[in-house]
Amino acid sequence: MSESLDDVDDDARLPRRIDWGLWRRLLVHVRPHLRVVLGLVTCGIALAMIDIGFPLLTRTVIDAITASERPDVDAVRWVAWAWGGAVLAFGALIWALIVLAGRLASSVSHDLRRAGFARLQELSFSYFDRRPVGWLVSRLTSDCDRIANLLPWFSLDLVWGPSLALGIAVAMLTIDAKLALVVLLIVPPLVLVSLVFQRRMLQSSRLLRRANSRITASIGEAVMGVRTTKSFAREAAALEEFSGLVDESRMHALRNAIQGAVFLPIVSTLGAIGVGLALWQGGVRIDGDLSLGTLVAFMQFAALFHSPIEDVARRLADLQGAQAAAERVQGLLDTAPEIGDAPQVLDAIARAKADGGAVIDGGRRDIAEVEFRGVWFAYGDGPWVLRGVDLHAARGQTIALVGETGGGKTTVVSLLARFYEPTRGEILLDGVEQRARSLEWLQSSIGVVLQTPHLFSGTILENIRYGRDGATDDEVTAAARLAHADEFITRLPEGYTTAVGEGGARLSTGQRQLVALARAILADPQILILDEATSSVDTETEALIQAGIARVLAGRIAFVVAHRLSTIRAADRILVVDDGRIVESGTHDELVGRGGHYARLHRRNFATALA
Amino acid sequence: MPSVLPALRLILRGQLPRFAAAVLALLGASCLMYLAPLIWQVVLDGVLAPQGDAPAWIDAVVADAGGRAYLRDQLWLPAGLFVVMLAAAGLLTHLRGRLAARASEDAIAALRRRLYDHLQHLPVAYFDGAETGDLVQRCTADVERVRLFLESHVPEIGHALVMFAVPLPVMFLLDPTMTLVAVALVPPIVAFSVVFFVRTQPHFVAVDEAEGKLTATLQENLTGIRVVRAFARQAHERERFGRTNAVLRDATAGVFRLLAVYWSSSDILCVTQRGIVLGYGIVRVAEGTLGVGALLYFVTAVSLFVFPLRMMGRILADFGKTRVAIGRLGDVLDAPLESAPTSPAAPVAARGALVFDRVSFAYGDGPRALDEVSLEIPAGTTLAIVGASGSGKSTLVELLLRLRDPQSGTIRLDGVDLATIARKEVRRQITTVLQEPFLFSRSVIDNLRLGRPDASLDEVVATAQIARVHTAITGFAAGYDTAVGERGVTLSGGQRQRVALARALLRERAVLVLDDALSAVDTETEAQILAALEARRGRGTTILIAHRLTTVARADRIVVLEQGRVLEHGTHAELVAAGGRYARGWALQHHDPTPAAPLAAPSEAS
């Protein structure tokens, strides 16, 4: 399973052969619905029998009335009843197989999505770093649907098609082997043409889909980037680029349509040749050993032959077409989370559950101190981001991390929250190695406010409450007040029940930061991490937050990442992070006095102001 | 929906001849398809059946073709003719497909280009109101629906109607009573189909909605995955997703159950129609008033026309959706474009002197975002604007770029009223870095060259160095060719801002506007960038909008905006000395009750 994003474009390439092993593994998701599959298969066989029955009934009735001077009334009556029964059975079968197919498709797709979603909730951040959200969404929507929709029709047609084709052949051979062999001459070309064209049409429809998704992306960019396009006055150039995409899409759409317009006439002409052959070779013998009814039945059989062959060819092509989707979904399900509870921790959780302990893994609930010991870290195979970080923080302390962008400040707090794990070195919580505690306990003990805070669509109230399910309205407003979010919220026409829109889009970045801060405060975490949490809040509001937050930080360990010196000054200790190392540590005054990195940072800030 | 017809006419412009030709091909093909089975009839009734039973016209045809005995020996002749006719029908079907595909694809391509061009020239205010997702939806899903309509629905309806209409005269000539029997169930089949799909439409809509909801839930979860983890809310999220997932499953299975009822009943109806023809026909054959060939012809004809007819309901039900789609596209295309001056002033090579003269602006019916703002920015100087969010800073920039037009007052560039200059011309004189810069998903270098496609690599690199982003770019595996955006690397906020800055600087315009453009860049890097930008002093005008007061302190003049009005203005030293809002902010950001005395006199290069 390749981990690269190259498979984004896989849709355009068709695999040369069907990977049956892959599909067998996906069958695990079908097993719970085995009875539905068996029902479908039964329906398929029965339906094929009825399809064969109609021409045979036609033959019987025609022979009954033409074979002798006096029509065989009994036979006609018998056929009429049989016909009626077959029609009803046919309707019932169609009903049953669509219901069954619907149940199978919707259930399998549901199960795949559930499994995929559960897996996504466990996977490490490094997995998400490499994959755009839109790409992941498509895995659980279009890919799952593709696989799930394929399965019922595949299992149905793969039974119905061969049964029908075989049934027709057997029926014809039994009735008249010589004429049958003549009519069956059209089968090889039908199979060949169907296989070739279904594959080609699939190929061009994928290219079309890819071209169309590019068009969608381009229109998305045009809308989102409308200010940029306008302010650079590059409307004409943009239109020209878009035009290229439109031409590409048009070309593939035309190719696909024309392939269809070639394929269908060829198939119908082959069918016509079969009928013509029957008419010619059968007609010659009509006064001899061949009845009129048989001739008519053979003509009908010849016309019927193409549809099972065409369907099987289409399903096989579909299977090839869905293979990339199947690989991606299976790949997601197979990806093991890089970060998770170790077996010992899982044992501890099981024991704690049996004992009914208050803490999930039976360890300490609160965190009095954290320590980094020689922590080194790199993202994947990338360069070192942290090179031997040592730090210590105790309850009640606020630690500020300052330094240049890319120096490693955010990485330090991400490791603390175990969003990533150190490549070397260890992180201790009250002297216990981080990995020896439950991940869920740790992450629910830490509150993080990020620079670009994400809100969920829903009301402000719901978003703040996300920090602690079951918090009362009063608790929510209290947290909002501490974050100084209450002021702007109450000024909104709908107050706390204001819908924030997708991703919080209806609030300004500053307002979103305040809500996110309130959310973290409500969670009442042992460790609070503010990563540039108030960068978009104006200076005065930030000063107010600073005043209020002192109460929030009391009794916790706090880490603050900030650019603004005014935010940092209130910290108990300032760590200057540069190039993956902590180069200085101390209070504001100590560090300014030391005349090192921090002093330079500070002086520059000031000198700029006074030039 | 009044805008549907004009919009449809616009979409189809120029393609009607091809559609007409496609209809002709369809008619031809269907005539051949119904004539071909007549050959069976002639052979079965006129050649193979005992003499004397066949109608007179068949005997005439047989006689013309060389007589019974001859045809009996040369049966390959009618069989071959049958194949040739169907092959010709196939050829015409192919032509019809090709023509219809060309016509609709060309119409769709033209529609897409028109929409895109229109979008780009809509005023910025349009994008405030329209949810971007909805707009993208219109330009993609709605266009796709129109495409489906043109390329599949119209031909299918045409096919169904032609296939039904063409054999009627032939059948009527053959046997009027049989014909009536053969179409007896057509009205109920069509009516059932239409009623069914119209009435079950809400269920299909419910599936679409459930699907949309599921995608939205998923998208939100994944976008906020860091928040989910940070609050350890996986169980809650699984439960939330589980609910929407189950709703979608049940809605989908429900639609399948409905379809099962539909297809089974309509199949029964169609097969019954065939059975009725066969049954009545047998009676007639037994009576000796109908040949076996004629019976076979009727059975074949019924099979040819009855099945396409039941698609009518599905397609007619979809017409509603198509009409909505066309209407919505019409709305976009009808939205008025940015106004253009009647006689635009000649393009100027601006020096960059800017004047805002009592400029007022309000969003919609809201309060004034700018209230009688007057500013003067001499060419070559730097003006800094500070103020709380919502004070009107960004509005000022949008007015300057003529992304919006002031309700009163004028903005002049080198003494010329902007309203008299074409918008594009205004934007060519000014280069901007917006607060949340937008990078296109393509390579870094293509993004940088956006404003000047012909810039040499050296120029690009030099500019990237000024914007302090060169090192970051060369740090990527593919350097300047690294793709950014959805498919490429994710740049940090600071990197994005610096790329946007380099992109703007590369354009080298008389006026540079930085709208809180360095907010995500750390102070040290920002200081270096601002120092490098000092080189512009005297050459170009700079408008610098910022939150951090340290960023603006070196500007020639500083304006403090509050609720759309100029609250304070002056040099840094003046404002600090004045002890107003600016001085308070300065003290807050620096925790010094009194700012230290300037080391040197502030340069006042205005």
Kindly name the structural category of chain A.
Answer: alpha/beta
Share of β-strand residues of chain A: 5-15%
Helix content of chain B: 55-70%
Overall pLDDT of chain B:
85
Q: In whole angstroms, how far apart are the ends of chain A? A: 58 Å
In DSSP terms, counting alpha (H) and pi (I) runs of 4 or more, how many helices of chain B?
24
Helices and strands, with pairings:
The complex is a heterodimer of chains A (611) and B (606).
Chain A: H1 20-26, H2 34-66, H3 73-122, H4 125-129, H5 133-175, H6 177-183, H7 187-224, H8 226-231, H9 235-284, H10 292-304, H11 306-321, H12 323-334, H13 343-355, E1 369-378, E2 384-394, E3 398-402, H14 409-416, E4 424-429, E5 432-433, H15 439-445, E6 446-449, H16 460-465, H17 473-482, H18 486-491, H19 509-522, E7 527-531, H20 539-553, E8 557-561, H21 565-568, E9 573-578, E10 581-586, H22 588-594, H23 597-610
Parallel strand pairs in A: 3-8, 3-9, 6-7, 7-8
Antiparallel strand pairs in A: 1-2, 1-4, 4-5, 9-10
Chain B: H1 4-12, H2 16-48, H3 56-64, H4 68-73, H5 76-120, H6 124-129, H7 132-165, H8 167-174, H9 176-182, H10 186-223, H11 225-230, H12 234-287, H13 292-309, H14 311-334, E1 354-362, E2 368-377, E3 382-386, H15 393-400, E4 408-413, E5 416-417, H16 423-429, E6 430-433, H17 444-448, H18 457-466, H19 470-475, H20 493-506, E7 511-515, H21 523-533, E8 541-545, H22 549-552, E9 557-562, E10 565-570, H23 572-578, H24 581-590
Helix pairs in contact in B: 1-14, 2-3, 2-5, 2-7, 2-13, 5-7, 7-13, 7-14, 8-9, 10-12, 10-14, 12-13, 18-20, 23-24
